[in-house]
Amino acid sequence: MTQRRNFWMRWRVRVGYPVAAVYWLLAAPTPRSIAAGTIIVAAGLLIRAAASGHLRKYEELCTTGPYALTRNPLYFGSALLAAGFAIAGRSALASAVVVAYFAIFYYAVMRNEESDLRARYGEAFKAYAAKVPLFFPRFIPATANRQSEVGTPAGKAFSWPQYIRNREYQALIGAIAGLAVVWLRMWLRTRWGR
Predict the structure, then answer these.
(1) Which residues, including other chains, have CB under 8 Å from residue 94's CB and lie 6 or more apart?
(2) Which residues have C-beta within 8 Å of that of residue 86, sequence separation ≥ 6?
(3) CB under 8 Å to 2, separation ≥6 — which residues?
(4) pTM to 2 decimal places
(5) Per-residue model confidence as pLDDT tens digits over 14-30
(6) Distance (Å, rounded) from C-alpha 88 to C-alpha 69?
């Protein structure tokens, strides 16, 4: 079990680089596709930022903010980032590569993290998981009036220092750099037809 978990965690990043290179080579972006993709990327960044400002890793089971809508708001935000880049790239083949990578690796990673949380928080996590979906958010937040139901006090507010502590600004920097590379791809295609 541990070997399998390590495989998915280790190879998620290693495989991500060649996937990004293949995406870039297959992409056929236009100003319009980049603009549309940027809107989706921005939504993903906002969701990730909101989640990161609530998450206190290894300290408590987070059930507030976006965590009241989905157990994996960071990965949901990442899915929107991937969708935004797929739209920006304007290539069915490039999109298929990105979607396949995300579906294979991130589902496995979410399941691995779920077992860690279940082991760490036991019944509190079980109660939380019964109310909140794994990935696709619900529209109405799960409510918890008693601390014992979910393991954390209800209503913890977003924290900028927590956002910074979780280094979520790296996702923003990465998204900006990624969009710049997509613009470069568009420029190269229009200039030299490649």
Answers:
(1) 22, 23, 26, 27, 28, 86
(2) 37, 94, 95, 98, 99
(3) none
(4) 0.87
(5) 888 899 999 999 999 99
(6) 27
